[in-house]
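Please produce the structure of this protein holding glutamine.
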Amino acid sequence: MARFIFITGGVVSSLGKGLLAASLGALLQARGYKARIRKFDPYLNVDPGTMSPYQHGEVYVTDDGAETDLDLGHYERFTGVSARQSDNVTSGRVYSDIIAKERRGDYLGATVQVIPHVTNAIKEFALNDIDDLDFVICEIGGTIGDIESLPFVEALRQLSNDLGRENVVFVHTTLVPYIAAAGELKTKPTQHSVREMTGYGIQPDVLLCRSEHPIPPEERAKIALFCNVPESAVIQALDARSIYDVPLAYHNEGLDREVLRAFGIEDAPEPDLKRWTDIMDRVDNPEGEVTIGVVGKYVSLPDAYKSLREALVHGGFANKVKVNIKWLDAEMFESEDEELAAKLEPMHGILVPGGFGERGSEGKIAAIKFARTRKIPFFGICLGMQMACIEAARNQAGIEDATTTEFGEEGEPIIGLITEWMSEEGLQKRSADGDLGGTMRLGAYDAKLSPNSAVASQYGTTEISERHRHRYEVNKNYIPKLEQGGLIFSGMSPDGLLPEIVERPDHPWFIGVQFHPELKSRPFDPHPLFKGFIAAALEQSRLV
Ligand code: GLN
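Below is the modeled complex.
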C-alpha cells in the first residue's frame, strides 16, 4: 500500500511548498522508491485554466489535457513522472462535482454538508488513481489558518486515522524570520503555526524551516521542544542558489531521512544523487553564455512563463552554457523601430512565447521580422508560431491584412477557430460561443514531421507527441501561399489537417511550433528544440 506524505505551509505563503514536494519526490526516487506528487488548491475556480497569468502564473498542461497549477510543472521536472488530471484538484472542482450530484438526486435527499460530503470527496481524490506507488506526496495550497483550506486540513486529519498513523507523515513548512534590529532569528511564528495545526488535530512529524540565516542549535532545540518533534526533524531550509540545488540541500539537512524515520523506515537504500550533482555541475561551471530575448505580454511576472524559463535553462545545461533571459514587453516594439533594433540586436536568440489576445501582437510580429531578416535564431511557441505565420503572410506572401480571428472579424484570417478535430477519444467539437474554460485543444497530440526537415533532425524522429493549449489553428488552405513566401510546414497533425510546425530553410534556426514544448523539458532530459535553439544561439554569439 502507498504511504502518504502531506505537505502544509504556515506563517506566510510563498515558502516554496511546491519545490519541497518536488524535491522530496526526487529524493525518494533517488532511493529507488516510486513516488507521485499531487496538489490540492483551496480556491473556488474549477481549474486554473481561466485564471490570469498575472495573478496565478503559468497554467501547466498535462498529457491528459488537464489545466493545472504551475507546481505540477516542478513535480514533473524534478521527478520525470508525467502528471495527470487526477493529480490536481481545486475546491471549486470538489464543490461543482458535489453540487452536480446533489442536483441529480444522488444524495437521496440527505443534507449535503462540508463534513462529511466535501471531506469525503477530498479523501477520495487523495486515494484515487494510485497504481503501484510507494509514496504519494500531497501538497496543500494556501496557508494553515486560511478559512478556505479548512476542509482539506480536516480531510487529511480523517485520512490519517483511516489509513493508520504509521502510513501518513505530515511535513509542515514555516518561516523563521530574522529581525535585523535585534540580530535574532525568531521561532515564535513557527510555534504558533504548529499550535494551530495541533488545534486541528494534526501533529506535524517534520518541520521545514525556511530562513535567510542558519538556524543555531539552540533555536532548533527550542522549536523541537515547543512543537513536539525530535530535534533532528527540524530541518533548516536556507535560500538556494538554484532551484536545482534544493534536492541536494534538503538531503544534506536530512529531510528524506527524517521523513522515512517518521514512517519507521530505518533500512532505506542510500540515495543515488548523481543526476542532481551533474546538473549542479552544469549550473556552477558553464563554459559560455548566451542571451535570449523573450518578447511577450506577461513579462512583468516571470512566473507566467515558468516552464519556458526552465526549458531555456535546460537548453543551456545541454550545451553547457549559462542562459541569460531578457524579458521584453512586446508593446514597446509597436511604435519605434530604433527601440526594436537597439533591444534586439544584442540578442543571440529571440523567442516569442504563447499568449492570448491582441495586445502586443504587432510588436511580436515586428520582432519576428527582425529575427527573420537579421538571421537571428528564432523560436515561436503557440501564439508565437501563429504570429510568425502572419508575419510571413504579410511580408512575403502579399496578404497585407493577414490576421487571426482571435483579434476580431477584420482582415484575412490566416489563423482561425477550428470547430472540429480528432483526438484519441474521437471527434471533438467546440463552438465559437462556448464557455471559455474547456474549449481548447488541450493535452498531448501526435504530429508527423517531414523527413528532411530541421525539426526532424532536432528531434531525431519523424513522429512526436507534444502538449497543446490553444483555441485557434493556422488555416491549412494558406499553406501553398505561405510556402511560396519561404515558410515550410514541416510538421502536421497525423490526419494532415492541422499545421503543427513551421520552419525556414534559408535561416540558421527559425522554428515555430503550435504546441508547448517547454512543458516536457526536464533538467536531466532537456527538450530537443530548446537544446537546438540554445546551440544556435551559441553559434550566433560567436558571430556577433
Ligand atoms: N491565443 C492562441 C490560441 O488560442 C494561442 C494560445 C497559446 O499561445 N497558448 O490559439
